[in-house]
Amino acid sequence: MKIFLDTANIPSIKTFVDMGVLDGITTNPTLIAKENREFVELVTDILRLVQGPVNLEVVSQESEGMVMEGHDLAALGPSVVVKCPMTGEGLKAVRRLHKDGIKTNVTLVFSPNQALLAAKAGADYVSPFIGRLDDAGHEGMKIIDEILQIYRNYNIDTQVLVASIRHPVHVVEAAKLGAHVATMPPDVLDKMVKHPLTDIGLKRFLDDWQKAGLKLPEGRSTAPKAKPMVQRA
Ligand code: E4P
């Protein structure tokens, strides 16, 4: 399963790019607004940092406007995926952008039927918002299972991008179901990196190393916290 980060925050993106765990980025107007920066400059910085798909959302309501915006966004870089909302106008825009060779992601999907229609319109990705469904008292992950089953039944190649992820268990569930992509906020990805037993185990290894008075070969750092060579000991 591919891991996308759901943010437009450059330091957060850089952290996970450096770890080599990021396959792409999703943004939405709320996330872009949070960064308080000129839009094109911000997107250019993201595109410079990230190798994989960068999802950017249109803000027009009518399909004509969405298509124009989609072309402008796609011109920013070959990895741009244009996010259109799951409305009739959004589907019209997806159909047009697909014909024009521009990749699309249908966002704000809350039912399997919406996902089926998004695929028929030609979406490359569909984004079911599971956390918001959970918040509303539904079982968000159930629609991921249903959408994947429907897509498999008809060999639909639209990718299921699990969105609105709230915690690491959502990620495990999405992966077990075989979702193509999970997009998550930086705090969730950070929680996936960490485990208390890793910290306890590492501390014990380093304490034992120090207690034994061991030294690294000449020229290497002897600070226990410093470099991977010590951590692997
Ligand atoms: C996905 O593309 C959306 O930006 C995102 O996952 C929405 O998540 P939220 O419900 O936490 O705002």
Features:
alpha/beta, binds erythose-4-phosphate, disordered C terminus, eight-stranded parallel beta barrel, TIM Barrel, 15% strand, 52% helix, 12 helices, 233 residues
N-C termini distance: 31 Å
How is the biggest beta sheet arranged?
8 strands, parallel, barrel
Output the radius of gyration. Answer: 21 Å
Q: Counting H and I runs of at least 4 residues, what is the number of helices?
A: 12
Based on secondary structure, the structural category is: alpha/beta
What's the CATH H-level homologous superfamily?
Answer: Aldolase class I
Top-tier CATH class: Alpha Beta
Average pLDDT over all residues: 95
Which secondary structure elements does this structure contain, and how are they paired or packed?
Elements: E1 2-6, H1 10-19, E2 24-26, H2 29-35, H3 39-49, E3 54-57, H4 63-74, E4 80-85, H5 88-99, E5 104-109, H6 112-121, E6 125-128, H7 130-135, H8 140-153, E7 159-162, H9 168-177, E8 181-184, H10 186-193, H11 196-211, H12 228-232
Parallel strand pairs: 1-2, 1-8, 2-3, 3-4, 4-5, 5-6, 6-7, 7-8
Helix pairs in contact: 1-3, 4-5, 6-8, 8-9
The chain binds erythose-4-phosphate (E4P).
